[in-house]
């Protein structure tokens, strides 16, 4: 995006609520905003780097997003890796 503006989108048709947490949110859950069949998080100023994250759809389990590479973190949980160039 322009001048460091980033948008993270999770495709979640039919979902009522989608939360994201990870390095970029200080591991605090953040609600994404519905836009058609996606839920979006505006992340202005997100610096280049690698970020670990998980999402929760409609109060389900926290999971790594399906389209990201994954790894097991220090707590034996599977997380997604988002690489921001």
Query: How is the main sheet built?
Result: 5 strands, antiparallel
Rg from alpha-carbon coordinates: 12 Å
- Total number of strands: 8
Portion of residues in helices?
Answer: under 10%
Helix/strand structural class: mainly beta
Strand numbers in spatial order across the main sheet: 3-2-6-8-7
Reading the helices and strands in chain order gives EEEEEEEE
Shape: globular
**Portion in beta strands:** over 45%
**Total of DSSP H or I helical runs spanning 4+ residues:** 0
Which regions are unreliable across 5 or more consecutive residues at pLDDT < 50?
none
Head-to-tail CA distance between termini: 11 Å
Residue-averaged pLDDT: 90
What would you note in describing this structure?
A hairpin with a 2-residue loop joins strand 4 and strand 5 (38-42). The chain has strands at residues 7-11, 18-22, 30-31, 33-35, 38-42, 49-57, 70-72, 78-84. The chain has 85 residues and is mostly beta strands. 0% of the residues lie in helices and 46% in strands. The mean pLDDT is 90. The radius of gyration is 12 Å and the shape is globular. It is built from no helices and eight strands. Strands 3-2-6-8-7 form a five-stranded antiparallel β-sheet, with no helix packed on it. The protein has a three-stranded antiparallel β-sheet with strand order 1-5-4, with no helix packed on it.
Compose a concise summary of this entry.
By secondary structure, the chain is mainly beta.
Strands, helices and their partners?
Elements: E1 7-11, E2 18-22, E3 30-31, E4 33-35, E5 38-42, E6 49-57, E7 70-72, E8 78-84
Antiparallel strand pairs: 1-5, 2-3, 2-6, 4-5, 6-8, 7-8
